[in-house]
Write a structure and sequence with these properties.
By secondary structure, this protein is mostly helical. The chain folds into two domains: about 50 residues; about 230 residues, Orthogonal Bundle (MetI-like fold), CATH 1.10.3720.10. Helix content is about 75%, strand content about 0%. Helix 4 crosses helix 12, helix 7 packs parallel to helix 13 and helix 12 packs across helix 13.
Length: about 300
């Protein structure tokens, strides 16, 4: 009797596993198909821009429908882009703003987050309220411009670094991550005679590298894409970042410095491929940086989002 019950139970368990496995296969198959379609919808616009930048301008203007490969491949658009001194100068300016701005922003954000994460520190809740208040209300563009002007930062590279040095959102994420570090580690360091800066740079920062990597990515992308502040604070083209030059090319159709001695029709056609080539050049650095930080991205966001 016991053997028959065991056999029956084994058969039901096996049958249940088979039915569950079939459901899993169906779900996995549908999931894979959906993700492939979603990936194609995401990747194709990027490939379209890349293929267009490598295509012959005249043939590209005549093409209709999907673009699955460059048409009569040529690198003329890239050659014209790199011959334009404004592009190269803007690229250099953007690198200065990204490296300098990200470094300065990370320094202030780390110090501020550490100060606000100290449990029992005087006036921290009140000071934190005024910091968070800036996420809800801001002075606006005109007061911001007047402040930068009165500080003497107009037509200065510091205008792209100092006014937007700290993001309240990033500060809160980093503060939350710092508060997750066990207090016993800091107490042990204090017993050994460690000061606040020693605790910060020897204990807190090494244990918070996933969050720090994510915040670096946030600041770097924001500085790379910044153009509005440059448009307001600069009237000297030698200070323009790449994104502002790109805006002129895409919106204002400023091809005079790139295409000379060509017919108007040819200039318009070449201008289309120049647009795509400039977009590729402006996007490639971020595409190369992100994969190295991607493994920290989800972990860092989850750590910074935990509430006590």
């Amino acid at each position: 009797m016991q053997a028959r019950i065991s056999s029956s139970a084994f058969f039901r368990a096996k049958h249940t596993r088979i039915r569950r496995s079939v459901g899993d296969i169906i779900f996995d198959t549908a999931n894979v198909i959906f993700m492939i379609i979603l990936s194609l919808l995401t990747i194709y616009p990027l490939l379209y821009v890349l293929f267009s930048s490598l295509s012959d301008a005249g043939l590209l203007m005549q093409h209709r429908g999907l673009l699955l490969a460059p048409i009569n491949p040529t690198t003329l658009a890239y050659e014209l882009v790199f011959l334009n001194p404004n592009i190269l100068r803007g690229y250099g300016n953007t690198l200065i703003y990204v490296i300098g701005g990200t470094s300065f922003s990370m320094l202030l954000t780390v110090l501020g987050a550490y100060a606000f994460s100290r449990k029992g520190a005087m006036l921290v809740p009140y000071m934190l309220f005024f910091v968070v208040f800036t996420m809800w209300f801001s002075g606006g563009m005109i007061p911001r411009f007047l402040l930068v002007r009165d500080l003497g930062l107009l037509n200065s590279r510091l205008a792209m670094i100092i006014p937007s040095a700290i993001s309240t959102f990033n500060l809160i994420i980093m503060r939350t991550a710092f508060r997750q570090i066990p207090a016993s580690l800091e107490e042990s360091a204090q017993i050994d005679g460690a000061r606040d800066l020693t605790i910060l740079f020897r204990i807190v920062i090494p244990l918070s590298m996933p969050v720090i990597a994510v915040i670096i990515l946030f600041y770097a992308v924001a500085n790379w894409n910044a153009w509005f502040d440059a448009m307001i604070f600069f009237n000297r083209r030698e200070l323009f970042p790449l994104q502002l030059i790109l805006r002129e090319i895409l919106i204002l159709n400023s091809f005079d410095a790139m295409v000379t001695g060509a017919a108007v029709a040819d200039e318009v056609q070449i201008g289309e491929t120049i647009k795509y080539a400039t977009v590729v050049i402006a996007t490639v650095p971020i595409l190369f940086i992100y994969p190295f930080l991607q493994k920290y991205f989800v972990k860092g966001i989850m750590i910074g989002a935990i509430k006590e």
